């Protein structure tokens, strides 16, 4: 009887920070059939939460950024006199791009190529869009290894993006909205795309956990009406819009508390500082507070009266939407992207007009005025999530893609 050969799957995570993408990847890894697949994980970033992956799989940190080219570009944009000299700004940006190639991309690519070859990898799974994962996809091309690319957001139709999307063997799209965007803007054939919703370990979300633990830790009185925006502190996640809504609601909802929940990527430290200064300038200190990254999200969701997703650009399908629905919490999301695909207005949540603080404030006030609405929509959301977001189903579908690509 022949011995079953276990295939080595190399996962590459090059996201901006520790958020929904890497959390969903960890869910997948924990539910792989280890009798058939062996996971190896490479992350471009490190930190306590990334290092936890070593307890679940073979993990290696390969730095993908030795020089912060985004900070360099921001610095160039801030020097106004550079733009007065024809061609100088373009030239300097080209120099920054080549610096990125030489000092960031090339060292990462070489080490990743060695990891794939030395680890006898059978398939490469890039956990983010193709352009930021071009090193992984090129390594697959050179080593004749099939590549799968997880696409989690809207893409532009630029020539560089088209080239990057020509590299993977197959795509996993987290929503039908993302799949349609890839087909319309980048002419990716539909047969190369599988739509698979992100999987959540629903059994690890404690629906009955005491949310007062979260409220006590972050000084939210029991009588307060707590509204939380969950997500990394990145401009397009909508924290500015959330503050706009707080201004509209502060005289309408007694004991209102608006919490900004999530960690801050290194690239966005200045953004957080600007948010904090705005809160001071506009006298919102008694209403708005920051929690930073929270590991136990069950406590967070149960500690909030309302959960908000407020992305200003269409988001594929945010983890906050999936987790909040699975917890049976009252949820408000923008009427675009994955939130609109997953949430039924007035049935499993409330949708607001994207980028409209007045519309967001209106939906928050609706939930405030109707505890029965919060209870009914929360229960409907949980029933829908339990039927849709099983991580076991997610892992099964992805392993079927591996089987179709592997010899």
Structure description:
The chain is α/β, with parallel strands linked by helices and 407 residues long. The protein has two domains: 7-199 and 390-405, Glycogen Phosphorylase B (Rossmann fold, 3-Layer(aba) Sandwich); 202-388, Rossmann fold (3-Layer(aba) Sandwich). Helices cover 44% and strands 15% of the residues. It is built from 16 helices and 13 strands. It has a seven-stranded parallel β-sheet with strand order 3-2-1-4-5-6-7, sandwiched between helices.
> What is the C-alpha radius of gyration, as a whole number of Å?
22 Å
How would you describe the shape? globular
N→C terminal distance:
19 Å
CATH topology name of the largest domain, in short, is: Rossmann fold
Mean pLDDT reading: 91
Strand order, sheet with most strands: 3-2-1-4-5-6-7
Tell me the structural class.
alpha/beta
